[in-house]
Design goal:
Elements (H helix, E strand, L loop, with lengths): L4 H7 L7 E5 L5 H8 L5 E6 L2 H13 L6 E5 L13 E7 L1 H10 L1 H4 L4 E6 L3 H10 L2 E11 L2 E10 L8 H4 L3 H9 L1 H5 L3 H23 L6 H22 L5
Parallel strand pairs: 1-2, 1-4, 2-3, 4-5
Antiparallel strand pairs: 5-7, 6-7
Length: about 250
């Protein structure tokens, strides 16, 4: 099974020997890859929609992997029993949906040793939510594919007693940068993140210039947007300062 760069980066974050629950499995490519490459011996592939789940079953049968990959129709982790899997994959869905699935399945995910998340929007909100839930970002990766940037996160439960005051932390520019861009990506000076930061800087500078050039730019809406862009620039400036001179 050949995976896209995005999906391969997700699969590569899975710890060998894990029993994986892949929610939103779509065509079943990641479960097939995990078993074929002997990363996992058992995967539970789930999707809320019947069509994608049937396509996943067809692909699993084509590779004769029914013994190792079980399929279930499920909204989030509803069809998963506590303790059945020790790794959860949520990839290729919006950040708000990721938060909803983790919130509804909170008791089940507490029994897991890791989660691999690849939200396609609201990534800062997802990282902040993980802190509030007592989950620690252990490893990250980022790829650029088909004109889009895709960050992915490996999180583990925070050891008891290590959960800090998340509301105070969130006020810190450093933490805002970590939420928005990823602590592991910044610490590793990830080249794709650096590329993304420059792209974002150019885009937001252009937006600010357009607003300032507008007649009547003193409107409340424009004022709020300029304030947001200024704060965004401050957070990005800290993120860029994490990189060696390029």
């Amino acid at each position: 099974m050949e995976l896209s760069n995005r999906l391969k980066a997700v699969a590569d974050l899975v710890s060998p020997g894990s029993v994986v629950c892949d929610v939103g499995c779509d065509h079943g490519y990641v479960p097939i890859y995990l078993v074929q490459n002997r990363i996992c011996t058992k995967v539970i592939a789930m999707d809320v929609n019947a069509g994608p789940l049937e396509r996943a079953r067809e692909h699993i049968r084509a590779f004769a992997l029914e013994e190792y990959i079980e399929t279930r129709r499920s909204d989030g982790v509803e069809a998963l029993e506590c303790g059945e899997a020790d790794c959860l994959i949520l990839a290729g869905m919006g950040g708000r949906l990721v938060i909803r699935i983790l919130t509804k399945g909170r008791e089940k995910i507490r029994t897991m040793r890791e989660m691999i998340l690849q939200p396609q929007s609201d990534i800062g909100q997802v990282r902040a939510f993980l802190r509030r839930l007592g989950l620690r970002i252990l490893q990250e990766d980022m790829v650029y594919e088909d004109g889009k940037y895709y960050p992915m996160i490996r999180v583990v439960p925070e050891p008891a007693g290590n959960v800090r005051n998340v509301e105070e932390i969130a006020k810190d520019v450093r933490q805002q940068a970590y939420d928005r861009y990823g602590p592991d990506l910044l610490q590793k000076q990830h080249r794709i993140l650096y590329q993304y930061l420059l792209w974002e800087q150019e885009r937001e500078t252009a937006i600010s210039s357009r607003i300032l050039a507008q007649a009547g730019n003193e409107s409340a809406a424009n004022g709020r947007r300029l304030t947001e862009l200024l704060q965004s620039a401050r957070i990005r400036e800290f993120a860029l300062s994490c990189f060696d001179q390029r």
